[in-house]
């Protein structure tokens, strides 16, 4: 079975909460991530996916690379991180421009339809099992927060 790759961005605020986006027509919340276009650098993919799924335009030089991680049997994640101030992110003004055909109606709808900050304790309640496991066992929000602080972010 071939393994696919998604490149994503872990966006933490000053309280080490992660920005999650609700995947439309599902029960789970996720970080901005997606597949790289042919020839696209993984950092650029993470920035593009974040822009498409949240509307946030971020500076590539404020990202730190977290590494590549097993996610599911058929997928790996190449993750980056940066810090956003809660006061600078109006959750109700974030917008997803990446569309897909609704499973119910066939109409084009946004991939993401809501946003929230989630603490490490909240992640299992909202995120998919794969993402919750990654943040609980392999790459904790506290460790990402520490790495961002070391980088001056």
TrEMBL record:
Per the record, the GO terms for biological process are: AMP biosynthetic process; ATP biosynthetic process
Q: What SUPFAM superfamilies does this protein's entry cite?
A: Nudix (SSF55811)
- Alphabetized InterPro entries for the sequence: NUDIX_hydrolase-like_dom_sf (IPR015797), NUDIX_hydrolase_CS (IPR020084), NUDIX_hydrolase_dom (IPR000086), Nudix_hydrolase_domain (IPR051325)
Q: Please indicate which superkingdom the organism of origin belongs to.
A: Bacteria
Quote the Pfam families the UniProt record gives.
NUDIX
Q: Does the keyword Heme apply?
A: no
Gene3D superfamilies associated with the record: Nucleoside Triphosphate Pyrophosphohydrolase
Q: Which UniProt keywords apply?
A: Hydrolase
Its transmembrane ranges are none
Coiled coil stretches, renumbered? none
Ranges where the Nudix hydrolase domain occurs: 2-141
One GO MF term on file is: bis(5'-nucleosyl)-tetraphosphatase (asymmetrical) activity
The reply on keyword Isomerase is no
Q: Which cofactor does it need?
A: Mg(2+)
- UniProt-recorded name of the protein: RNA pyrophosphohydrolase
> From what organism does this protein derive?
Ralstonia mannitolilytica
Q: What is the lineage of its organism?
A: Bacteria, Pseudomonadati, Pseudomonadota, Betaproteobacteria, Burkholderiales
């Amino acid at each position: 079975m071939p393994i696919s790759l998604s490149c994503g961005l872990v966006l933490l605020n000053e309280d080490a909460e992660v920005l999650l986006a609700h995947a439309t027509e599902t029960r789970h919340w996720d970080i901005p991530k997606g597949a790289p276009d042919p020839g696209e650098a993984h950092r650029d993919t993470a920035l593009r996916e974040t822009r498409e799924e949240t509307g946030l335009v971020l500076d590539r030089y404020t990202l730190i690379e977290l590494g590549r991680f097993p996610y599911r049997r058929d997928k790996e994640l190449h993750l980056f991180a940066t810090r956003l101030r809660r006061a600078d992110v109006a959750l109700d003004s974030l917008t997803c421009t990446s569309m897909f055909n609704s499973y119910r109606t066939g109409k084009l709808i946004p991939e993401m339809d809501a946003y929230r900050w989630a603490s490490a304790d909240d992640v299992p309640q909202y995120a998919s099992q794969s993402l919750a496991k990654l943040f609980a066992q392999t790459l904790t929000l506290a460790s990402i927060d520490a790495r961002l602080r070391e980088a001056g972010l």
